[in-house]
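Researcher: Good morning. I'm working through a list of sequences from a screen, and I'd like to move beyond sequence-only analysis. For each chain I'm collecting a predicted structure so we can compare shapes side by side. This is the next one on the list. No need for commentary yet; just the structure.
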Amino acid sequence: MKRILFAVMMFAALSACGEKPQALQTSKRDASAYTGTGKAFANKDWKQGDKASWESQLKARNQYGQNDYTRMN
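Model: Good morning. Structure tokens for this chain:
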């Protein structure tokens, strides 16, 4: 019985040695947000790759969609 218990304890102790290193995974693609994703389901008023239209869409979304004061009145 002691041998089985010893074997189980050794197995448990040595199982931690096989742990893989945990490194921070970052995005491999470092591009500006206005360049787009290349997907077809983007907003129809926004042209992907155009910084000015990206900024105007953000401004409109912040003003009309996320501003509770303008939505309530």
